[in-house]
Structures are given as structure tokens and as C-alpha cells.
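Subject: sequence -> C-alpha cells, single chain

Hey, anyone have a minute? Need the predicted structure for the following. Not urgent.
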Amino acid sequence: MIKNVKPISFVLVFSSFISFSFVENKKPTEKLVPGDNAPIQVLENNLQKLELHGDDGDYFLLSFWSGSDAKSRMNNAKLCHVIVKHDKIRMVSVSIDENKSIFDVAIKQDGIDSDCCYNEPEGENSKIFDEFDLKNGFANYLVDNKGKIIAKNISSKDLDVYVK
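Reply:
Had a minute. Here:
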């Protein structure tokens, strides 16, 4: 019986090594991750132009949301109200609402400074929606002054940690 165990053990170990050699290195399924460059450095439409670069040490928090998506809208409002205590972070609140009246009502109800808001009138058909891979859900990105993504989907509580 012991004589039969050794060949079987050898076959099992050998087959395990062979199966590991066929394991592929998986790439992240997310399009943008920390360390990548932000795909768009200027947000521009016929009404607005926002440049996403600044002085050394400055950061931009790009927060994507929609008036019809309660979770993203709530998170955006929280971030907008917390960001005022951070002098090195500039908030850019990007609404993916085709209907500007929805955008206007949302920023008024949420008490958000309209100077930091950008409305993308093409909505889900826009280049921004595609480039920032928002089809998998609204997100926010902390971007440094050179356009490098530092963090993704941070909460209002995490801002202090990332900036230090």
C-alpha cells in the first residue's frame, strides 16, 4: 500500500505545479485606480470651463453625482460641506444630469456653492462619463496638481488622512 502512495503523491504534486503555471495575472477590473493619471484635465462645455490643475501641494476632489442617484448626491453634499476646512483641496462637484433644472434644484437644496459645481449636459452620453468609467457607479477621485489620482471613493472622514 505504501508503495502506491508515493507515485500518487508525486503525480498530485506535479500536477499542482503545472496547474499553477497556467494561472494568469489578473488586471484590475476598474478603469481608473490610484496611481493613474486623471483622463481629463479640463472640464468644458458651452457654459463652463474648469481646469484641474493648481499650485504645488494643491489637490482636487472630483465628485461625480446625479440628482437621480440619492447615494451619490448625499455623498457629494457631505464632501462639499467638509471640504471648506481644507485649504489645499479644491472641490469640483460634477453633475451627470442632462436636465439643468434638476442640477440647479439639487445644488440649491443641498446648500452647495455653485462656483465649485459643473454640470455635464450630455449626461451618460458624455466623454466624462465614459473616461471616468461611471457606468459602474458614481465615484469621487482625489487628484494632485499634476493630474495623478491619489485616492478613489474617499469619505468625508478620510480627507484628513489623504491630505497629510
